[in-house]
Amino acid sequence: MKTTKKAVISGLAMIGTAVLLAGCGAAPESTGASAGAGASDYLPCMVSDSGGFDDKSFNQLGKEGLDAAAAELGSKKPIEVQSQAETDFASNLQNLVDQGCNTIITVGFLLAPAALESAKANPEVEYVSIDDTVDQDFDGKTDAPNIKPIIFDTAQAAYLAGYLAAGTSKTGVVGTFGGMNIPTVTIFMDGFAQGVEKYNADNGTSVRVVGWDRAAKDGSFTGGFEANDTARQTAQAIIDQNVDVLLPVGGPIYQSAAVAIQDAGREIALVGVDADVFETDPSIGSLLLTSILKGIDVGTKDAIVAAGQGNFDVAPFVGTLENDGVGIAPYHDWSDRVPAELTSKIDALKADIISGKIIVESYLAG
């Protein structure tokens, strides 16, 4: 089940156009696997990535969507299993199968190989894959007929955040770093850098991005998704390059970035990811310029409600600016520091991305 990073990125690029077409209006396909059971007997379940369900980010959003769906359905109480490491994925999935779960949601790109193995071994169980299409053979199709992908073209929203960051930076240097060099992380960094490039082109400026090289497809990474001293040191190394806006991509690693910002003793804006971190973690709200949003909770809820009603739909959902699957959060405490003309320009850019006038490059853009 192992693949190289290059192969993964190549395969994901191949499927981009097909998946986006599916997400933008292909007819739903239903396996009917839940149709025989009433909602009260339906058991939805979830496996987290290593960040855990209290990461105030994508795992937490997935759990919130699952819990909301179960409440709406009046189903059995969901079973949620937390992974401490990648070595837990297969056993956690088997544990849920053994407990009779009707639908299992896997949260995160890294769970895809284990999810595929489990789905093939248990064709009667429905699977929802958040952040991966589960196309391990790179033929442009999900590799098992009982898996629904929920994925997000976050480059579009990150583009807006990059433009915003460049427009609010006083030092002319903005930075980013990630948990791991995988497509679902670097898609944020790519979009962010493209937004900065657009700002420079529009305004004759030369705002720099440190921590990510679009041409080399490499940059600063912590090697995982834990809030730890490695993440703090990585953030500090970027801040030391005169950065005054910082985008950490990787669930809880934003917490370590916040510590580094507070230790710096100067005004540095933080950009959150996945959830509106101002709402999920008010303790660092004053640092937040905005957050790049993924509608994981909404996508998860919709998929589980459909499954619980016997209408499990395996057509991929792709979150975009157009369908509100991605976006940027309000500026909250930073509102008075963002010029009105910059806000208006970002609104115009959003409209141009939705219309197709601006194409934001990503492995999902086709």
TrEMBL record:
Entry-linked Pfam families: Bmp (PF02608)
SUPFAM superfamilies listed in its UniProt record = Periplasmic binding protein-like I
The chain positions of domain ABC transporter substrate-binding protein PnrA-like read: 46-361
Q: What PROSITE patterns does the record tag this protein with? A: PROKAR_LIPOPROTEIN (PS51257)
The alphabetized UniProt keywords are: Cell membrane, Lipoprotein, Membrane, Signal
Chief place where the protein resides: membrane
Q: How does the protein associate with the membrane?
A: Lipid-anchor
Tell me where the signal peptide lies.
1-22
The record ties this protein, via InterPro entries, to: BMP_lipoprotein (IPR050957), Mycoplasma_p48 (IPR008107), Peripla_BP_I (IPR028082), PnrA-like (IPR003760)
Q: Where in the cell is it found?
A: Cell membrane
Family (UniProt): Belongs to the BMP lipoprotein family.
Give the protein name, as stated in the record: Basic membrane protein A
